[in-house]
Amino acid sequence: MAEKETLPLLLKARGKYLVPNAITAANMILGLISVFYASKGFHATAAWIIGYCIILDKLDGSTARMLKASSEFGIQFDSFSDFVSFGIAPAYLVYSLFTIEPWSSAFEKSHESFFLYFSVLFFILMSATRLARFNVTTVPKTPFFFGLPTPGGAGFVMTFVLGCLKYDDVEFFRQLLTAAPYLLVIVGFLEITSFAMLKVGQRTGVGGKLFEVGGFIFLIYCFVTRSLPEVLFVMGVIFLLKTLYYNYRHRDEIQARLKAAGIEVKTEED
User: What is the pTM of this model?
Assistant: First the structure.
């Protein structure tokens, strides 16, 4: 009788892990679908799908914490999913763009095509490096990310591409789109840097909390309605510049908070 009573409890205990892992699986599947659409020339659709992956990535972590269903398997599975959706999919989106007219002519020369291949491979490699480093580095709980998270990097790429495609009847934006491979290199570099970025949910005060909630609602609205990608890109740039400025102005405070959390951070003077 005890065994029969224990079995449902065991299944219920394990069942709670299915929810966040199912969301993670959906994230990975959407990442693969994005690659498929990009290969067929539907680049705007492929880019918006990456946006949906960003929402799912936020949702699976929140669900796991809410259900207390975090696990080592979930951590590793999430990293594989992120690599597909935020490493491979954005890189292939940019690569596939420049294999069709009118943008294929922008990288038809040998040295130009080499840079295109380099930027795509560099972005994928840096995304994989960040995810692997995150998994093997034991960091006590802090209010910071180190470097640009891969969902944020993918967000920069997809909103930049969407913003340029939205105004592709304007010559300036057609030319601007050819900067996408350079953006891959910049974002890839930011992903492996060690600057501190305040995590979502760590802001204090009513104003800070309202800003985060309002920003997330606006993000979902834009992704669901497939609108205002240029606004999202500009918001991302402003947030990144603000983060870099925060690191410069509060570097001593950041050092102190990291040391209080048990993290030794070496400086150039060391």
Answer: 0.87
